Amino acid sequence: MPAARESLLDAAGAALAARPWPEVRMVDVAAAAGVSRQTLYNEFGGKAGLGRALVRREADRYLDGVDRALSAPLRAPERLVAVAEWTVRAARAQPLVRALLTGSWGPGLPAASRSEPGPGDLARAVRDRAAAALTPGEGPQRCELAVRLALSYVIAPGEEPGAGELLGLLSAPNRTAGARRPPG
Question: How far is the C-alpha of 151 from the C-alpha of 181, rounded, in Å?
């Protein structure tokens, strides 16, 4: 049944790319996947279950991309830039990833459940993955910073900094440690 599940999720993702979630019909998803509606209902229980599974899969795919960026044969700052670039690309390409990272769920998307990770959860997951992938001192906090900087370009698109500018920001010594914030 795993092949049918993936086919159904692929079909649901394609349907969502073509029209808002409320207009996605279960019969069309099943037909596109080449399975019966009963198979679809057996696998997901209903449209809400299909939507939750689709959201979960996109969250997992995003984190898989983070893992790929962190495992690249590059220096730590360059891997952090790769995480930031992946975050922007994934959020722009996938509305569900954008919603997961920003917490902004439009009416055309499947409803988010409380069991799905929120933006803070994903940022912490990326930080924790960075802590596991980078050697001590390379800065999992910088990885979280990279994701949060990338999210600023997802939320408020503008002229994106080049990789060199991001690299400079992420590889510079942490000047804020011990520094006091200005009042107000």
Answer: 23
